[in-house]
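Below is a filled-in request sheet from our internal design queue. Each sheet records the structural input a requester submitted and the sequence that came back. We keep these sheets so that new team members can see what a complete request looks like end to end.

REQUESTER: design group, bay 2
PRIORITY: normal
MODE: inverse folding
CHAIN LENGTH: 79
BACKBONE (tokenized):
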């Protein structure tokens, strides 16, 4: 019969070291997440700016087209 024995003992010192490593890991992870969110926020801002520019261009084209149609109708009625 084989008896499983723990390979290592968890002393208070080792537990403190583990706790310190875990805390640092969380600090590092939070920093990476903040940097990633900042990058994504910047990309979303740029996307919104580009979309607004394109919507404004479409609106200008629609207004110009509507004016041209009205002018053509008025011009054909003047004859």
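RETURNED SEQUENCE:
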């Amino acid at each position: 019969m084989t008896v499983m024995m723990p390979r290592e003992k968890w002393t208070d010192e080792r537990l403190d070291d583990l706790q310190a490593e875990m805390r640092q890991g969380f600090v590092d992870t939070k920093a990476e997440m903040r940097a990633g969110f900042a990058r994504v926020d910047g990309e979303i801002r740029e996307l919104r700016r580009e979309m607004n520019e394109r919507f404004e261009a479409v609106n200008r084209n629609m207004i110009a087209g509507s004016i041209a149609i009205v002018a053509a109708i008025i011009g054909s009625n003047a004859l």
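SHEET NOTES:
- Residues 12-78 form the longest helix (67 residues).
- The mean pLDDT is 91.
FILED BY: M.R.
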